[in-house]
């Protein structure tokens, strides 16, 4: 049996492959500290679960509109708009079974086969996968490590734009780097989009997952609202990763296209899950605040433990739940040439499981340093400290 050729262009969320290796090691009776997968081991706020149960009891278990139920679309329009100083209508909101579907539906809506889409690398691997699966030219722009953290290499980004470049994916508050743009960097991205008439996917999954300061959206800059699609997800703020609920907030023409794709792909997002989402958006803030406060404690524990390891260079991000340390010096000292070998050895010697830079897009020419990613959202502070203390002892014993 021959499968469709386009499947050869389809990648995967490679953190899950690390999960398989970690699970195999754990199945042999070994302790594993799962820093590899950005899941959240905290309960969804009770008011959200209660709203789902009520919706099920009321019979909200059948089909509903492809673009989403009106109470949720209205709530999202008001909430997303007010937090960004913008005004959206329900017609701009298209509900999705998670944030991830927005990526593929955005690409299907704005990119023709053979056209280019700019995307961050290192970055969420589904960007690259979806661009190539739908026949596009994946144009990776890169980051550089500065004294204050990671920054987009704007000169490189400008150099790879071609007349066939159609769109740019911009993930401020970024996975896996944990970084955010300065106002000047965000304005530069907006200027590039306007100059080259690019449509923008603003992946704002971590917009409200920050420990200090406030977030801003590229859609709020002059000339950007009419060319920007915002990716919204309930997974992070409300600890709803497995509920699969998100939305695209888009200009009307693109919103209509995404709604049509909903009809063809999944008919609709689960009705009672959407009802729960309304409770999250309109309900009390204490549940999400408790989640963020705990993640803040975990950030401090993880960054503090890594900072004690001689040779680690790790910016301290004020958002997301990821750390992306440089481990070049450690690997050289321990005799590792390949970062995957270092990760496997760390798992087998310490139980600490993490992703590497190679799990977040193809390494680009000229990359000399080695990086790994630690997600601290799925471990308690005690487990973070225990796991990373063991990692430190192993490294320092070499």
* CATH homologous superfamily designation of the largest domain: Type I PLP-dependent aspartate aminotransferase-like (Major domain)
- Overall outline: globular
The sequence of SSEs as H and E is HEHHEHEHEEEHEHEEEHHHEHHEEEH
Assigned CATH architecture of the largest domain = 3-Layer(aba) Sandwich
Q: Give the strand order of the largest sheet, numbering strands 1, 2, ... along the chain.
A: 2-10-9-8-7-3-4
Oligomer: single chain
Q: What is the class of the largest domain in the CATH system? A: Alpha Beta
Total strand segments: 14
How would a textbook summarize the main sheet? 7 strands, mixed
Number of domains: 2
Tell me what portion of residues adopts beta-strand conformation. Answer: 5-15%
| Number of helical elements | 13
Integer-rounded radius of gyration: 21 Å
Give the mean pLDDT.
Answer: 96
Measured as a percent range, the helix fraction is 40-55%
Q: Which topology of the largest domain does CATH recognise? A: Aspartate Aminotransferase, domain 2
Given as residue ranges, the uncertain stretches (5+ residues, pLDDT < 50) are none
Question: Could you say which structural class the secondary elements and strand pairing correspond to?
Answer: alpha/beta
């Amino acid at each position: 049996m021959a499968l469709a050729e386009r499947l050869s262009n389809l990648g995967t969320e490679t953190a899950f492959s690390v999960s398989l290796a970690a699970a195999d090691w754990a199945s042999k009776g070994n302790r594993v500290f799962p820093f590899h997968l950005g899941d959240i081991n905290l309960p969804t706020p009770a008011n959200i679960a209660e709203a789902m149960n009520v919706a099920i009891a009321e019979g909200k278990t059948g089909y509903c509109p492809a673009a989403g139920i009106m109470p949720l679309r209205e709530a999202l329009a008001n909430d997303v708009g007010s937090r960004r100083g913008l005004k959206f209508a329900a017609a701009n909101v298209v509900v999705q079974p998670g944030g991830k579907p927005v990526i593929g539906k955005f690409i299907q809506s704005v990119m023709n086969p053979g056209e280019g889409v700019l995307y961050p690398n290192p970055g969420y691997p589904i960007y690259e996968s979806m661009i190539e699966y739908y026949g596009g030219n994946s144009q990776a722009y890169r980051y550089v490590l500065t004294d204050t953290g990671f920054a987009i290499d704007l000169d490189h980004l400008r150099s790879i734009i071609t007349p066939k470049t159609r769109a740019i994916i911009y993930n401020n508050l970024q996975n896996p780097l944990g970084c955010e743009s300065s106002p000047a960097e965000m304005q530069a991205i907006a200027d590039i989009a306007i100059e080259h008439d690019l449509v923008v996917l603003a992946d704002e999954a971590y917009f409200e997952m920050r420990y200090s300061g406030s977030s801003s959206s590229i859609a709020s800059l002059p000339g950007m609202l009419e060319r920007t699609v915002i990716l919204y997800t309930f997974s992070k703020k409300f600890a709803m990763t497995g509920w699969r609920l998100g939305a695209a907030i888009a200009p009307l023409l693109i919103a209509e296209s995404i709604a049509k794709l909903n009809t063809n792909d999944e008919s609709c997002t689960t009705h009672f899950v959407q009802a729960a989402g309304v409770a999250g958006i309109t309900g009390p803030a204490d549940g999400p605040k408790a989640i963020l406060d705990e993640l803040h404690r975990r950030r401090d524990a993880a960054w503090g433990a890594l900072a004690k390891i001689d040779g680690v260079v790790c910016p301290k991000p004020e958002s997301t739940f990821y750390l992306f340390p440089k481990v070049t010096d450690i690997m050289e000292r321990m005799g590792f040439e390949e970062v995957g070998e270092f990760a496997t050895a760390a798992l087998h010697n310490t139980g600490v499981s993490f992703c590497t830079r190679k799990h977040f897009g193809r390494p680009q020419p000229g990359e000399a340093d080695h990086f790994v990613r630690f997600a601290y959202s799925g471990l308690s502070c005690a487990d973070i400290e225990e796991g990373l203390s063991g990692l430190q002892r192993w490294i320092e014993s070499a």
